[in-house]
Each structure stands twice: as structure tokens, then as C-alpha cells.
Amino acid sequence: MKSLSLIHAIVLMHEKTRLKKTIRLDERIARFDATPENMALARQLSDRVLGRNLTSLPWETKILFLLIEEMAEKECRLRKIERESFRFTRERVRLNTGWSDPQLKLHLSCLVDLRYFLPHQEGRILQYELLCNSKSKTTIDMSGDQKNC
Fold first, then answer.
1. For residue 50, which of 93, 2, 120 has the smallest C-alpha distance?
2. What's the burial of 20, exposed, middle or buried (CB within 10 Å: 0-12/13-18/19+)?
3. Rounded CA gap, 48 and 42, in Å?
4. Do the Cβ atoms of 41 and 10 come closer than 8 Å?
5. CB within 8 A of 4, min separation 6: which ones?
6. Which of 9, 56, 87, 131 is the one with CA 20 to 30 A from 28?
7. What are phi and psi of 31, to 5 degrees?
8. Alpha-carbon dihedral angle through residues 13, 19, 25, 26, given to the nearest 10 degrees
9. How confident is the model at residue 19 (pLDDT cuts 50, 70, 90)?
10. Fold of 54-148
11. In 47-61, which positions are buried (b, 16+ CB within 10 angstroms) versus exposed (e)?
12. Domain residue spans in the chain?
């Protein structure tokens, strides 16, 4: 709902520079359409202003995030590497969690879209990097700013 309000505000902010469209129901109503740029700006503002919160995720996605985070902590301790250098594949997650591939595709794509994970394509292998830490409740976004998680 907050994102829709942001999109609406951005569209209204640009109303003087856009083509006005009218529709006729019982009376003429002027309308302005949101562009993909409006939606991208709303998402960027939403991330910066409203922050992210694990409680806003669907419960299955939240569980997967927490399972992956636990897997990352264990593997980082075993391999003696920093969390920032840890990357994982969907196959590794499937072996550690027992989740099906369709489940993982759905929930990982959600976490990537929300920038909890950053995908890295290395040849034919897709690996993910954790951008968020549920324990510290912060994450580093693509611009390098810390945000709520």
C-alpha cells in the first residue's frame, strides 16, 4: 500500500509534463499513467525511506532466508572466510534445506528482487551473495548505504 502511495505521488509530481488522458464513465475523468520509471523511483525511495523488514516477507521466504543465513554462518566458520566473501548456489541450498527446486526458484527470486541476495553469474553457474544480516538488522544496498533489514 505504501508503494502505491509513492507511485501515485510521483505520477502527480510529473502531471504537468505528461500527456493527460481522459476516460468517460458518468463524467469525464482525467488520469495520468505511471511509467516504469515512476515505479522504479518509487521502489528506490521505498527502500531508502521505509526500509526493509523480515516480518514483511511471506513466511516461507523468511524461513528460507533464515535457513540460508544459518548455512552461511556454518560454512564461513568451517572454511574460515568472512561472510562478505561467501557465495552459494541454489543446488547447495537444495542439499542443505531439502526444499524442491521450484520452491527455491520462487523464494530466491523474491529475495533477489528485494535485494536480500545479489546474484553473480560465473559462466553457467549462478551464485548468490548475502547482502542482509538478520542479526544486525542491517544490510548494505547497491549504493553502499546501510539500510534496515
1. 2
2. exposed
3. 10
4. yes
5. none
6. 9
7. -145, 155
8. 80
9. low
10. Arc Repressor Mutant, subunit A (1.10.10)
11. beeeebeeeebeeeb
12. 2-50, 54-148
Going by C-alpha positions, the residue among 147, 126, 144, 121 that lies closest to residue 136 is 147
DSSP at 55: G
| Cell numbers for 43 | 521502489
Residues 6+ apart with CB under 8 A from 7: 34, 38, 39, 42
Average the pLDDT over 46-56 and give the result.
64
Is this prediction's pTM over 0.90? Answer: no
Residue type, 52: R
Instruction: Give the separation between CA 7 and CA 76, rounded to whole angstroms.
Output: 40
Per residue in 83-142, pLDDT (tens digit) is 888 999 999 999 999 999 999 999 999 999 888 899 999 889 999 999 877 765 444 443
Cell numbers found for residue 34: 505511471
